[in-house]
Amino acid sequence: MSLVDFDLLAPYGWNSAVAADFLPLLGDSHIPARVIRMDRSECDVAAPLPTADYQSRLSAAVVRARCPRSDSEISGLTTGDWVAIDSNRTVVRLLPRRTAIVRAAVSGHSDAKAKSANQVLAANVDVVLVCTAGDGDVDLGRIERMLALAWESGAQPVVVLTKADLAPDLSLDHVRAVAPGAAVVAVSASSGYGMDVLESLLDGTVALIGPSGAGKSTLANALLGSDVFATNAVREGDKRGRHTTVHRELRPLPGGGTLIDTPGLRSIGLWEATEGIERTFSDIESLAAHCRFGDCSHDTEPGCAVREAIETGALPQRRLDSYRKLHRENEWMAARTDNRLRAERSKVWRDISKNQKRMYRERGARGR
Asked: Could you tell me the pTM of the whole model?
């Protein structure tokens, strides 16, 4: 086998941890590569193609590779994955993922097929930029949902309010209140405002997530220093944008590290995100630890620290409502894939139905 200069992958995130994962494959004539873009049965990968003269190649080549069949053990590749390819440029191994941004996919499948109803947006991400436009009504509930997704991935979230030049009176206090543990910054990609602060927070592989019209591609271009990704203006009526970015794509950052731009998210369904929700609502979790009862529902129980915080104004009612909503959704998704939980939920609804029928019968008997 020709010599391979693995260091040529450094601009794409190659480090000692990835090298250790690839070490067992060295004897199998495999070549390490990173997926930078997916396209159905094929993908673009960055790979140090074999060469006997290291000096003749200044960077890893971006080549087209064939992906495994859908029934393969390594199907479901995504942008950011580290893989091994063979001499025929076919992906033959998937290296372990350190982190993964996973959402519930919009699917019409029955419960029996629900285990495949998730979508990995990006893998091996170190920092997630949760982007939202700051020139309109800032949706705190959407930010909380995206934060839960980011925390669950294992990466560090940073909330970025874009288009700050169009919102001179923009306040970050209400956003910081819903993002404990995450930095919150306001930036303008067009004027450069706040970009130095944001760049100081970047480390390793950075992924941008957010709705269409949030300015992700414009921000990505500013970070990359060139117009790599196409951009579109948003509609004036509702400040919404079209899906300018249609693929998740990874690019090296000029100052080191890599960046993954993602299409706008219309829906952000949570997938097994219990830890992510707890991190997002760590303020409520901390208050709940001081409730009189360990199973307090924060409703009418005496000695509820959460209700007390709401009554004193220290915690908004909206925050608790959002916390409950995301927990209910997460439990529902878990029940779709867990036979025991699904059976328990079915029993609860059967009991409710029986009680309702009995109540109607008794009400009818009293009326006769």
From this structure: 0.83
